[in-house]
Amino acid sequence: MTRTRTRSARARRRRRAALLVAVAAVVVVAAAAIAVPIVLDRFAASAPTAVSTPSSRAESPGPADSPTPTPTPTPTPTPTPTSPVAQPCPGGDTLLTIWAHPDDDIIFANPTISEAIAAGDCVRTVFVTAGDAGRGMDYTRARELGILRAYNVMRGEEGLWDETEITLDAGMRVDRLTPQGDPRVSVLFVRLPDGNITDGGFAATGYATLSKLLDGSIASLAPIDGGPALSSAQLTASLAELAEAFHPSQTLTHIPRGSAFAPGDHPDHSVVGTLVRDAIGPTADAGPGLRYFVGYPSENLPRNIEGAALDTKVEIYRVYTQQDDVIRCADRDGCLKTRKFGEWLRRSYPKTEAELQMP
Hints:
This protein is an alpha/beta fold. The protein has helices at 2-45, 104-108, 112-118, 137-155, 210-215, 232-246, 267-280, 307-321, 332-337, 341-345; strands at 94-99, 122-129, 161-167, 173-179, 185-192, 250-254, 290-293, 350-351. Strands 3-4-5-2-1-6-7-8 form an 8-stranded mixed β-sheet, with helices on both faces.
Protein backbone atom coordinates (compact mmCIF):
# COMPACT_ATOMS: atom_id res chain seq x y z
CA MET A 1 0.00 0.00 0.00
CA THR A 2 2.77 2.33 0.77
CA ARG A 3 4.63 1.93 -2.54
CA THR A 4 1.48 2.19 -4.60
CA ARG A 5 0.59 5.50 -2.89
CA THR A 6 4.10 6.77 -3.40
CA ARG A 7 4.09 6.04 -7.10
CA SER A 8 0.66 7.66 -7.45
CA ALA A 9 1.89 10.80 -5.67
CA ARG A 10 4.91 11.00 -7.92
CA ALA A 11 2.72 10.63 -10.99
CA ARG A 12 0.48 13.42 -9.79
CA ARG A 13 3.49 15.73 -9.21
CA ARG A 14 4.81 15.03 -12.72
CA ARG A 15 1.45 15.84 -14.30
CA ARG A 16 1.17 19.11 -12.24
CA ALA A 17 4.65 20.22 -13.31
CA ALA A 18 3.87 19.57 -16.96
CA LEU A 19 0.68 21.60 -16.64
CA LEU A 20 2.58 24.54 -15.10
CA VAL A 21 5.12 24.50 -17.92
CA ALA A 22 2.36 24.53 -20.50
CA VAL A 23 0.60 27.44 -18.80
CA ALA A 24 3.86 29.35 -18.57
CA ALA A 25 4.47 28.87 -22.26
CA VAL A 26 1.03 30.20 -23.10
CA VAL A 27 1.60 33.28 -20.90
CA VAL A 28 4.95 34.04 -22.55
CA VAL A 29 3.47 33.79 -26.04
CA ALA A 30 0.55 36.04 -25.12
CA ALA A 31 2.85 38.60 -23.54
CA ALA A 32 4.99 38.68 -26.64
CA ALA A 33 1.93 39.18 -28.82
CA ILE A 34 0.81 42.12 -26.67
CA ALA A 35 4.27 43.73 -26.45
CA VAL A 36 4.78 44.04 -30.19
CA PRO A 37 2.03 46.56 -30.99
CA ILE A 38 2.93 48.66 -27.91
CA VAL A 39 6.53 48.98 -29.09
CA LEU A 40 5.44 49.79 -32.65
CA ASP A 41 3.08 52.45 -31.42
CA ARG A 42 5.90 54.13 -29.51
CA PHE A 43 8.07 54.34 -32.61
CA ALA A 44 5.18 55.58 -34.72
CA ALA A 45 4.72 58.58 -32.36
CA SER A 46 8.28 59.67 -32.97
CA ALA A 47 8.44 58.86 -36.68
CA PRO A 48 9.37 61.79 -38.97
CA THR A 49 6.54 63.44 -40.89
CA ALA A 50 6.63 62.62 -44.56
CA VAL A 51 7.80 65.55 -46.73
CA SER A 52 5.83 66.06 -49.90
CA THR A 53 7.86 66.45 -53.05
CA PRO A 54 6.97 69.13 -55.58
CA SER A 55 4.90 67.99 -58.50
CA SER A 56 6.54 67.89 -61.89
CA ARG A 57 3.55 69.96 -63.19
CA ALA A 58 4.32 73.68 -63.31
CA GLU A 59 2.24 75.72 -60.88
CA SER A 60 1.33 79.37 -61.19
CA PRO A 61 3.19 81.42 -58.65
CA GLY A 62 1.02 82.99 -55.94
CA PRO A 63 0.56 86.75 -55.73
CA ALA A 64 3.53 88.62 -54.35
CA ASP A 65 3.19 89.82 -50.76
CA SER A 66 2.11 93.47 -50.62
CA PRO A 67 4.63 95.61 -48.78
CA THR A 68 3.37 97.00 -45.42
CA PRO A 69 2.57 100.69 -45.96
CA THR A 70 4.53 103.14 -43.85
CA PRO A 71 2.09 105.00 -41.59
CA THR A 72 1.89 108.73 -42.19
CA PRO A 73 2.98 110.52 -39.02
CA THR A 74 0.27 112.63 -37.40
CA PRO A 75 1.39 116.24 -37.35
CA THR A 76 1.76 117.71 -33.88
CA PRO A 77 -0.79 120.49 -33.47
CA THR A 78 0.64 123.93 -32.96
CA PRO A 79 -0.14 124.99 -29.39
CA THR A 80 -2.42 127.97 -29.05
CA PRO A 81 -0.41 130.91 -27.74
CA THR A 82 -1.29 131.78 -24.17
CA SER A 83 -1.77 135.41 -23.24
CA PRO A 84 0.72 136.66 -20.64
CA VAL A 85 -2.25 137.75 -18.54
CA ALA A 86 -3.69 134.22 -18.34
CA GLN A 87 -4.31 133.12 -14.78
CA PRO A 88 -5.68 129.63 -14.07
CA CYS A 89 -8.56 129.33 -11.66
CA PRO A 90 -7.83 126.84 -8.86
CA GLY A 91 -11.48 125.82 -8.63
CA GLY A 92 -15.02 126.79 -9.53
CA ASP A 93 -16.13 129.08 -12.34
CA THR A 94 -14.50 132.35 -13.35
CA LEU A 95 -16.35 135.64 -13.24
CA LEU A 96 -14.82 138.41 -15.38
CA THR A 97 -15.96 141.93 -14.51
CA ILE A 98 -14.96 145.03 -16.52
CA TRP A 99 -15.72 148.55 -15.30
CA ALA A 100 -14.99 152.18 -16.06
CA HIS A 101 -13.97 153.33 -12.56
CA PRO A 102 -12.85 151.80 -9.27
CA ASP A 103 -16.09 151.42 -7.23
CA ASP A 104 -18.47 150.78 -10.16
CA ASP A 105 -18.28 147.07 -9.39
CA ILE A 106 -19.18 147.27 -5.70
CA ILE A 107 -21.94 149.86 -6.28
CA PHE A 108 -23.76 148.42 -9.30
CA ALA A 109 -22.83 144.71 -9.46
CA ASN A 110 -22.94 143.63 -5.85
CA PRO A 111 -24.08 141.29 -4.38
CA THR A 112 -23.32 139.29 -7.56
CA ILE A 113 -19.54 139.63 -7.16
CA SER A 114 -19.41 139.07 -3.40
CA GLU A 115 -21.63 135.99 -3.73
CA ALA A 116 -19.34 134.53 -6.41
CA ILE A 117 -16.31 134.94 -4.15
CA ALA A 118 -18.19 133.44 -1.20
CA ALA A 119 -19.09 130.44 -3.38
CA GLY A 120 -15.40 129.78 -4.11
CA ASP A 121 -15.43 131.02 -7.70
CA CYS A 122 -12.63 133.04 -9.24
CA VAL A 123 -13.16 136.74 -9.90
CA ARG A 124 -11.07 138.80 -12.34
CA THR A 125 -11.95 142.49 -12.18
CA VAL A 126 -10.68 145.07 -14.67
CA PHE A 127 -10.88 148.86 -14.32
CA VAL A 128 -10.41 150.64 -17.65
CA THR A 129 -9.97 154.22 -16.42
CA ALA A 130 -8.00 155.50 -13.46
CA GLY A 131 -11.05 157.21 -11.99
CA ASP A 132 -8.63 160.05 -11.35
CA ALA A 133 -11.07 162.97 -11.73
CA GLY A 134 -8.13 164.98 -13.05
CA ARG A 135 -6.40 164.74 -9.66
CA GLY A 136 -3.45 162.56 -10.68
CA MET A 137 -1.96 159.31 -9.47
CA ASP A 138 -2.19 160.04 -5.74
CA TYR A 139 -5.97 160.05 -5.83
CA THR A 140 -5.94 157.08 -8.21
CA ARG A 141 -3.72 155.05 -5.88
CA ALA A 142 -5.97 155.87 -2.95
CA ARG A 143 -9.04 154.60 -4.80
CA GLU A 144 -7.19 151.45 -5.84
CA LEU A 145 -6.20 150.78 -2.24
CA GLY A 146 -9.84 151.17 -1.25
CA ILE A 147 -10.84 148.59 -3.86
CA LEU A 148 -8.28 146.08 -2.61
CA ARG A 149 -9.54 146.49 0.94
CA ALA A 150 -13.13 146.07 -0.24
CA TYR A 151 -12.13 142.81 -1.93
CA ASN A 152 -10.48 141.70 1.30
CA VAL A 153 -13.87 142.12 2.96
CA MET A 154 -15.49 140.04 0.22
CA ARG A 155 -12.77 137.38 0.60
CA GLY A 156 -13.21 137.42 4.36
CA GLU A 157 -9.48 137.80 4.88
CA GLU A 158 -7.02 140.63 5.39
CA GLY A 159 -3.67 140.41 3.67
CA LEU A 160 -1.10 141.83 1.30
CA TRP A 161 -1.42 141.84 -2.48
CA ASP A 162 1.29 141.12 -5.05
CA GLU A 163 1.57 143.55 -7.97
CA THR A 164 2.67 142.45 -11.44
CA GLU A 165 3.01 144.63 -14.52
CA ILE A 166 1.86 142.80 -17.67
CA THR A 167 1.72 143.82 -21.33
CA LEU A 168 -0.94 141.94 -23.26
CA ASP A 169 -0.27 140.62 -26.75
CA ALA A 170 -2.73 143.21 -28.08
CA GLY A 171 -0.61 145.99 -26.58
CA MET A 172 -2.46 147.05 -23.44
CA ARG A 173 -0.41 147.28 -20.25
CA VAL A 174 -2.05 146.43 -16.94
CA ASP A 175 -1.05 146.28 -13.31
CA ARG A 176 -2.42 143.06 -11.85
CA LEU A 177 -2.92 142.77 -8.11
CA THR A 178 -3.43 139.33 -6.54
CA PRO A 179 -3.82 138.66 -2.80
CA GLN A 180 -1.00 136.58 -1.42
CA GLY A 181 -2.08 132.97 -1.03
CA ASP A 182 -5.42 133.47 -2.79
CA PRO A 183 -5.18 133.18 -6.60
CA ARG A 184 -8.98 133.09 -6.91
CA VAL A 185 -9.10 136.89 -6.99
CA SER A 186 -7.24 139.42 -9.10
CA VAL A 187 -7.77 143.09 -9.88
CA LEU A 188 -6.33 144.70 -13.01
CA PHE A 189 -5.83 148.45 -13.48
CA VAL A 190 -5.46 150.00 -16.96
CA ARG A 191 -5.57 153.67 -15.82
CA LEU A 192 -6.81 155.46 -18.92
CA PRO A 193 -7.96 159.04 -18.19
CA ASP A 194 -11.27 159.62 -16.44
CA GLY A 195 -13.66 161.22 -18.93
CA ASN A 196 -15.63 163.31 -16.41
CA ILE A 197 -19.40 163.23 -15.95
CA THR A 198 -19.60 165.95 -18.61
CA ASP A 199 -17.72 163.72 -21.10
CA GLY A 200 -15.30 166.61 -21.64
CA GLY A 201 -12.37 165.19 -19.71
CA PHE A 202 -10.02 167.14 -17.45
CA ALA A 203 -7.34 169.71 -18.15
CA ALA A 204 -4.74 167.61 -16.32
CA THR A 205 -5.12 164.84 -18.91
CA GLY A 206 -5.53 167.05 -21.98
CA TYR A 207 -9.31 166.61 -22.06
CA ALA A 208 -8.78 163.15 -23.52
CA THR A 209 -11.67 160.74 -23.02
CA LEU A 210 -12.79 157.24 -23.90
CA SER A 211 -15.70 158.70 -25.86
CA LYS A 212 -13.33 160.64 -28.12
CA LEU A 213 -11.29 157.49 -28.67
CA LEU A 214 -14.33 155.41 -29.57
CA ASP A 215 -15.77 158.14 -31.82
CA GLY A 216 -12.47 158.64 -33.65
CA SER A 217 -11.84 162.20 -32.46
CA ILE A 218 -8.46 161.07 -31.17
CA ALA A 219 -6.29 158.29 -32.59
CA SER A 220 -5.08 156.95 -29.27
CA LEU A 221 -5.38 157.35 -25.53
CA ALA A 222 -2.50 157.04 -23.06
CA PRO A 223 -2.81 155.87 -19.43
CA ILE A 224 -2.10 158.49 -16.80
CA ASP A 225 0.71 156.35 -15.35
CA GLY A 226 2.85 156.70 -18.48
CA GLY A 227 1.92 153.39 -20.10
CA PRO A 228 1.75 152.94 -23.88
CA ALA A 229 -1.07 154.69 -25.70
CA LEU A 230 -3.86 152.54 -27.11
CA SER A 231 -5.92 152.87 -30.25
CA SER A 232 -9.59 151.95 -30.15
CA ALA A 233 -8.81 148.74 -32.04
CA GLN A 234 -6.07 147.82 -29.56
CA LEU A 235 -8.34 148.45 -26.60
CA THR A 236 -11.08 146.28 -28.09
CA ALA A 237 -8.59 143.53 -28.95
CA SER A 238 -7.14 143.69 -25.44
CA LEU A 239 -10.57 143.20 -23.87
CA ALA A 240 -11.15 140.23 -26.15
CA GLU A 241 -7.77 138.84 -25.11
CA LEU A 242 -8.75 139.10 -21.45
CA ALA A 243 -11.88 137.06 -22.10
CA GLU A 244 -9.90 134.47 -24.03
CA ALA A 245 -7.28 134.26 -21.29
CA PHE A 246 -9.69 133.90 -18.37
CA HIS A 247 -12.40 131.72 -19.99
CA PRO A 248 -15.19 133.25 -17.87
CA SER A 249 -18.53 131.57 -17.36
CA GLN A 250 -19.97 135.08 -16.99
CA THR A 251 -18.79 138.60 -17.80
CA LEU A 252 -20.22 141.64 -16.02
CA THR A 253 -19.98 145.20 -17.32
CA HIS A 254 -21.91 148.43 -17.93
CA ILE A 255 -24.94 149.13 -20.08
CA PRO A 256 -23.69 150.00 -23.60
CA ARG A 257 -24.54 152.98 -25.73
CA GLY A 258 -27.86 152.74 -27.50
CA SER A 259 -29.63 150.76 -24.78
CA ALA A 260 -32.85 152.12 -23.33
CA PHE A 261 -31.06 152.03 -19.95
CA ALA A 262 -28.09 154.16 -21.08
CA PRO A 263 -29.45 157.74 -21.01
CA GLY A 264 -28.36 159.55 -17.86
CA ASP A 265 -25.45 157.21 -17.16
CA HIS A 266 -21.81 158.27 -16.89
CA PRO A 267 -20.31 158.52 -20.42
CA ASP A 268 -17.38 156.33 -19.38
CA HIS A 269 -19.83 153.63 -18.29
CA SER A 270 -21.54 153.61 -21.66
CA VAL A 271 -18.28 153.49 -23.62
CA VAL A 272 -16.85 150.62 -21.56
CA GLY A 273 -20.11 148.69 -21.95
CA THR A 274 -19.95 149.26 -25.70
CA LEU A 275 -16.31 148.19 -25.95
CA VAL A 276 -16.96 145.01 -23.97
CA ARG A 277 -20.04 144.20 -26.03
CA ASP A 278 -18.09 144.69 -29.26
CA ALA A 279 -15.09 142.69 -28.01
CA ILE A 280 -16.78 139.81 -26.23
CA GLY A 281 -20.39 139.74 -27.40
CA PRO A 282 -19.66 137.87 -30.66
CA THR A 283 -17.49 135.31 -28.84
CA ALA A 284 -19.25 131.94 -28.79
CA ASP A 285 -17.95 130.98 -25.34
CA ALA A 286 -18.10 134.26 -23.44
CA GLY A 287 -20.86 136.11 -25.29
CA PRO A 288 -23.88 134.26 -23.85
CA GLY A 289 -22.63 134.95 -20.32
CA LEU A 290 -22.53 138.74 -20.71
CA ARG A 291 -24.53 140.72 -18.17
CA TYR A 292 -24.88 144.50 -18.40
CA PHE A 293 -25.59 146.35 -15.15
CA VAL A 294 -27.73 149.46 -15.03
CA GLY A 295 -25.69 152.39 -13.68
CA TYR A 296 -26.86 155.83 -12.62
CA PRO A 297 -30.41 155.36 -14.01
CA SER A 298 -30.95 152.46 -11.58
CA GLU A 299 -32.09 155.01 -8.99
CA ASN A 300 -35.32 155.27 -10.98
CA LEU A 301 -36.01 151.53 -10.67
CA PRO A 302 -37.56 149.84 -7.62
CA ARG A 303 -35.26 149.02 -4.72
CA ASN A 304 -34.36 145.33 -4.85
CA ILE A 305 -31.53 144.90 -2.31
CA GLU A 306 -32.45 144.72 1.35
CA GLY A 307 -31.83 142.91 4.62
CA ALA A 308 -28.54 141.07 5.14
CA ALA A 309 -27.61 141.43 1.47
CA LEU A 310 -27.88 145.21 1.74
CA ASP A 311 -25.92 145.26 5.01
CA THR A 312 -23.07 143.30 3.41
CA LYS A 313 -23.07 145.44 0.29
CA VAL A 314 -22.96 148.68 2.27
CA GLU A 315 -20.13 147.45 4.51
CA ILE A 316 -18.01 146.53 1.49
CA TYR A 317 -18.67 149.98 0.04
CA ARG A 318 -17.96 151.73 3.37
CA VAL A 319 -14.54 150.09 3.60
CA TYR A 320 -13.75 151.34 0.11
CA THR A 321 -14.81 154.91 0.87
CA GLN A 322 -12.28 155.24 3.68
CA GLN A 323 -9.70 155.74 0.91
CA ASP A 324 -11.89 157.99 -1.28
CA ASP A 325 -12.19 161.45 0.24
CA VAL A 326 -14.88 162.47 -2.25
CA ILE A 327 -17.55 160.03 -1.04
CA ARG A 328 -16.30 158.88 2.37
CA CYS A 329 -18.99 157.66 4.76
CA ALA A 330 -18.52 156.59 8.37
CA ASP A 331 -21.19 153.94 8.86
CA ARG A 332 -24.14 152.15 7.29
CA ASP A 333 -26.61 154.97 7.82
CA GLY A 334 -24.16 157.56 6.58
CA CYS A 335 -23.49 155.59 3.40
CA LEU A 336 -27.18 155.07 2.68
CA LYS A 337 -27.85 158.78 3.19
CA THR A 338 -25.19 159.82 0.69
CA ARG A 339 -26.90 161.57 -2.20
CA LYS A 340 -27.35 159.28 -5.20
CA PHE A 341 -24.99 156.63 -3.83
CA GLY A 342 -27.42 155.52 -1.15
CA GLU A 343 -30.08 154.81 -3.77
CA TRP A 344 -27.65 153.01 -6.09
CA LEU A 345 -26.54 150.78 -3.22
CA ARG A 346 -30.14 149.66 -2.69
CA ARG A 347 -30.36 148.38 -6.25
CA SER A 348 -28.65 146.05 -8.72
CA TYR A 349 -30.09 145.39 -12.16
CA PRO A 350 -28.26 143.09 -14.59
CA LYS A 351 -29.56 142.86 -18.15
CA THR A 352 -29.03 140.21 -20.79
CA GLU A 353 -28.40 141.09 -24.43
CA ALA A 354 -32.09 140.55 -25.17
CA GLU A 355 -33.09 142.91 -22.36
CA LEU A 356 -30.95 145.86 -23.45
CA GLN A 357 -33.73 147.25 -25.66
CA MET A 358 -31.28 148.30 -28.35
CA PRO A 359 -32.68 150.23 -31.34
